[in-house]
Design goal:
single chain; about 290 residues; mainly alpha
Length: about 290
């Protein structure tokens, strides 16, 4: 009987798809926990993630030890991405801010030639970037929400800026992890631990004290185990096994799942600007894929 041959390319795609499915729930959970201060929410969820990583390292914290530049990259990626996303969801219409944040897969394709050697930026990449950012403009200019904080007649809210910054951070983190010295996937537990403690320190210094209900605790636990936990480990393993550009292209399934779930749970209507912007942003990824 022939033993099935292990295919790293297929395995990487399956792992990435599993991470993407979990990330599809992140914005909906973030909106449900909108009343929890962002530093506190980020810190607690990342500490849950760090505890989750213990079995992966055989309960040996020594396996979390990585060079300082790698630790700085991991902390910047995990802490920066999630804190800025939660800020964005509070200060811009959530569905629209979520779509702007999901420019990160496009940025992975476009920035790959900048961060990775032997990759050229072709005209098709530039066209994909223009289409994707045009989609973000449609989201912002056509996304007025009278109930959003800081919005005006054109639908602008300052929360779109942290949404875009969050996208850039995650794209950069995903690409740069392939350039630093190899580290075990379980070391992400160390990234999460440092990031979580940093977030809680910022909460203690900068945010008012908050009371958490039992429901809040369960939602934070779900967030830390799923989109801010298992998804990290699946994503890291996928990047180690496969092509970062192909994985970035698969990521365009995330805005579909995330936006659909957010519309469903928030009760906001699926307006034509949101639909058009989603099509433009996802289409940009498909266009960028042709330039590989």
């Amino acid at each position: 009987m022939t033993t099935p041959r292990f295919r790293p390319d297929l395995a990487s795609k399956l792992l990435a798809l599993a991470a993407i499915a979990l990330w599809g729930t992140l914005a909906a959970l973030g909106v449900a926990l909108n009343h929890v201060p962002p530093f506190l929410l980020t810190g607690l969820a990342l500490l849950v993630c760090s505890v989750m990583a213990l079995p992966l390292s055989g309960f040996q914290l020594s396996r979390w030890k990585v060079p300082l530049p790698t630790l700085a990259l991991g902390v910047g990626g995990l802490f920066g991405f999630h804190f800025l996303l939660f800020v964005a969801l509070r200060h811009a219409p959530p569905v629209q801010a979520n779509l702007v944040n999901y420019l990160w897969p496009l940025l992975m394709v476009v920035l790959a030639p900048v961060f990775l050697p032997n990759m050229a930026l072709r005209p098709v990449h530039i066209a994909a970037a223009l289409l994707g950012f045009a989609g973000a403009a449609v989201v912002i200019l056509g996304g007025a929400d009278a109930g959003s904080v800081g919005s005006n007649d054109w639908g602008w809210a300052w929360g779109y800026l942290p949404a875009l910054a969050s996208a850039f951070i995650w794209a950069s983190y995903s690409l740069l992890t392939t350039r630093v010295a190899p580290f075990p996937t379980s070391a992400i537990g160390g990234f999460a631990l440092v990031s979580g403690l940093l977030s809680l320190l910022c909460h203690a210094l900068l945010e008012p004290a908050a009371h958490l209900s039992g429901r809040d605790g369960l939602l934070i636990l779900a967030m830390g185990l799923g989109p801010m936990g298992a998804a990290f480990f699946l994503w890291d393993k996928a990047l180690k096994l496969g092509d970062a550009r192909q994985i970035g292209i698969l990521s365009y399934l995330t805005p579909l799942a995330s936006t659909a779930l957010l519309v469903l749970t928030s009760g906001r209507p699926l307006t034509w600007p949101i639909t058009l912007a989603a099509v433009m942003i996802i289409g940009a990824a498909l266009l960028g894929a042709r330039g590989r």
